[in-house]
Amino acid sequence: MADETPLLRAQSVSLRFGGVRALTDVSFAVAQGEIFSIIGPNGAGKTSMVNCVSGRYRPTEGRILFEGRDITALRPNRRAGLGIGRTFQNLALFAHMSVLDNIMVGRHHLLRAGFLRGMAYWIGGAQREELEHRRAVEEIIDFLEIQHVRKAPAGTLSYGLRKRVELARAVALRPKLILLDEPMAGMNLEEKEDMARFITDLNEEWGMTVLMIEHDMGVVMDISHRVMVLDFGRKLVEGTPEVVMADEHVKRAYLGEVEAA
Ligand SMILES: Nc1ncnc2c1ncn2[C@@H]1O[C@H](COP(=O)(O)OP(=O)(O)OP(=O)(O)O)[C@@H](O)[C@H]1O
């Protein structure tokens, strides 16, 4: 039945870089409305998996389905157009531009992705579109509580705020699925708590489905509906945070590493 089709499905995905097996036969599905996290030790294949979903990498074998449609061969911008949004691990904000303009750029980029849509933009309704953009951007600025810095150049913000602006830029495109690569990396406790709250609110209030890589186990177990553990490119286990925490393989392969760190 249509409403049982997961939003995202990875089917037997393998990825090799020369002799390196980054992923081996990994399958999982993310349902509409879930927060799904991928965890695992360094080099386990987490980023490779998310890159296969965003389209940055093409799996050597296997398929990626989005809303039941095979997107394995689609380029990243086509996937973005279908509703797969992402933030980037290295902050790629325009330092001299205001927060507001940084977020606006994201939306214009989407709009002008197609030539015909670009023409439509210029020929008719440009002002109306501009107003719609502004409204959408202001809404997300309010939602992520960055009103106080909306005019500030992005380069002058604290690290935590820049990460929030980056999230705002991705969310302003209203993706159906958002890919978050270590959204808490480098943050202090307060910033992490804020970010966790925003992700939960985006999920609960805006219905945004989230696929996240995150090393902070507290946050992962706190806000995820389900978690998949990768180890040496293979899926070790997948389930609710309780199931994953209780798994013996996970304790040995991953949690043990955290305790030792
Ligand atoms: N572009 C690439 N070229 C060659 N090897 C790569 C490439 N990207 C990833 N790999 C290799 O694939 C394996 C999985 O890497 P990946 O970055 O996906 O792991 P990860 O779980 O995200 O690690 P981390 O937690 O350190 O970010 C590693 O052995 C890595 O060296």
TrEMBL record:
CDD domains: ABC_Mj1267_LivG_branched. The keyword Disulfide bond does not apply. It holds the Pfam family BCA_ABC_TP_C. GO terms for molecular function: ATP binding. Keywords: ATP-binding, Nucleotide-binding, Transport. Residues 8-257 form the ABC transporter domain. SUPFAM superfamilies: P-loop containing nucleoside triphosphate hydrolases. Transmembrane segments: none annotated. The keyword ATP-binding applies. Gene3D superfamilies: P-loop containing nucleotide triphosphate hydrolases. PANTHER family: ABC TRANSPORTER ATP-BINDING PROTEIN, CONSERVED COMPONENT OF ABC TRANSPORTER FOR NATURAL AMINO ACIDS-RELATED. This is ABC transporter ATP-binding protein.
